[in-house]
Amino acid sequence: MIPLQIIIVEDDAIIAQLIAQYMEEAGHKVLNICHKYLTALEALKSFNPDLVFLDINLGDEYGGLNIGKLIQTTYKYPFIYLTAHSDPDTLEKAKQTEPCGYVLKPFKAADLYTAITIGLFNFKQRKQSSELKIEELNKVALDKVSQREFEIIQDISKGLTNSQISKKQFISLNTTKWHIQNIYSKLDVKNRTSLVKKIYEIN
User: Fold this and answer.
1) Residues forming beta bridges with residue 104, ordered by sequence position
2) What superfamily would CATH give domain 5-130?
3) Separation in Å, CA 86 to CA 107, 114, 119, 137, 152
4) Domain ranges across the chain
5) I need a surface site. Which of 88, 90, 154, 162 has the fewest CB within 10 A?
6) Which CATH architecture fits 134-202?
7) What's the CA dihedral at 133, 138, 139, 142 to 10 degrees?
8) Which of 87, 115, 120, 88 is nearest to 22 (CA)?
9) pTM, 2 dp
10) For 179-195, how does the pLDDT look when each residue is reduced to its tens digit (9 = 90+)?
11) pLDDT tens figures, 120-147
12) Given a cut of 80, is residue 198 above it in pLDDT?
């Protein structure tokens, strides 16, 4: 299995540490362990994980589901729900946020590894079927966007800030801003909101 960078969102400290242990034993890196809703929000803003393990019940009824919805609509990271609840109502609410998998508690290391393998495959397939293609974008652009500009457009659509884009693309903040202004000009939009709206209309 390819090494992954992982965020764990789990309010039970013992379970969270167990997951971290299993992940590290498999060669993965745990970027952050979050026990509460607000710290999870901060971690999602600060890191760019390959995968998130997300407890559905974060000390309240649907804290994890709210985070799942945020990941679905803003960050687009693959995430796997952890839950002790398998009732139809909970699973139906969870399904609406499009996780790439579920792990029921109690679990074994093998359960997590299997969920990762199947979940990331499903996420990749879903992403490939819906992902914006540069060729489609350039059909409506006033001037063709470059590969770097296209990557920045994808970052913007995931909700990344200019600072996060700079770090991800290994370019300065001023260079990022310059690219974004070029993107706005080429796609005839004025801001991030209109850019994302145009992307969704194309896709």
Assistant:
1) 83
2) Response regulator (3.40.50.2300)
3) 14, 18, 18, 41, 39
4) 5-130, 134-202
5) 88
6) Orthogonal Bundle (1.10)
7) 150
8) 115
9) 0.65
10) 999 999 999 999 988 88
11) 988 887 776 556 788 888 999 999 999 9
12) yes
